[in-house]
Amino acid sequence: MKKEWLVYLGILIVSLILFFVVTEPITFSPTVSFIIIGLILLAIVYIFVRTIQGNYVGRQTVFLFVGISVILPFFMTITQPIKLSPEVGSLYTALGELQPGSKVLISFDYDPPSAPELQPMAETFFYYCFKNDLKVLIMGLWPQGPQQADLAIQKALEQPDIAAKNIEYGVDYINLGFQAGNEFVIQRMGSSFKSMFPTDFYGTPYDSLPLVDGISNFSNIDFSMNLSAGYPGTIEWVQVAVDRYGVKLGAGNTAVQAPQVYPYLNSGQIKGLLGGLNGAAEFEKVVGVIGKGTKFMVSQSAAHVIVIAFIIIGNAAFFLGDKRKKSKAAEKKEA
Amino acid sequence: MRREIPMFITAVVGVVFVIQYFIPHWPFNQMNAWFSDWFSIISACAIWLGALNLMKISANKVYRKKKEWGYSAVIIACFAITVFIGFKGGESFREAGTGFDWIYRFAYIPLSATMFALLAFFVASASYRAFRARNFEATLLLLAAFFVMFGRVPVGDAVVGWFQNIGLPVPDAIMPSNIATWIMNVINAAGQRAIMIGIALGIVSTSLRIILGIERAHLGGD
Question: How far apart are CA A222 and CA A242, in angstroms?
Answer without folding.
Answer: 12
